[in-house]
Amino acid sequence: MEIKLERFSLDHLDEPIETSIRLDGIQLPNLVPLELSGEAFDFPINPTQGYIDGSIYIGHAHHPVDVTSVSFGRCDGNQIEVEVVMKFIFDFEGLDDFSATDWVCRTNSVIASSH
């Protein structure tokens, strides 16, 4: 899963940041939007088996993103509402001023199912 972010800036970085959150290794029972609607899944954090391998690229480094849950809402065709609860581990690669930051992202996602 990739969550594209609007361009933003951070005080101590000279250039605007264009990035996305990359989430790999998400284990779901299927990718059929209608069947995922109303479902919620909890995930352990890295390095516990079953974790989502998440990262965000800022300041010439990949920073870990721990995802603890993914919830699916209303479905409309191949688009579905998605809520991702995550924590950015910014101090892992030098953004110590930001430490660990909790964030909940709510968005619509397009899922290409294989039927």
Tell me what you see in this structure:
There is one protein chain. The protein is mainly beta. The protein is 3% helix and 48% strand. It contains one helix and seven strands. It has one helix at 33-36; strands at 2-4, 20-24, 40-42, 53-58, 61-76, 79-89, 100-110. Strands 1, 2, 3, 4, 5, 6 and 7 form a seven-stranded antiparallel β-sheet that branches. The longest helix is centred in the N-terminal third of the chain and has 4 residues, at 33-36. 17% of the residues are buried. The mean pLDDT is 89.
Compose a concise summary of this entry:
Strands 1, 2, 3, 4, 5, 6 and 7 form a 7-stranded antiparallel beta sheet that branches. The protein has one helix spanning 33-36; strands at 2-4, 20-24, 40-42, 53-58, 61-76, 79-89, 100-110. The longest helix is centred in the first third of the chain and has 4 residues, at 33-36.
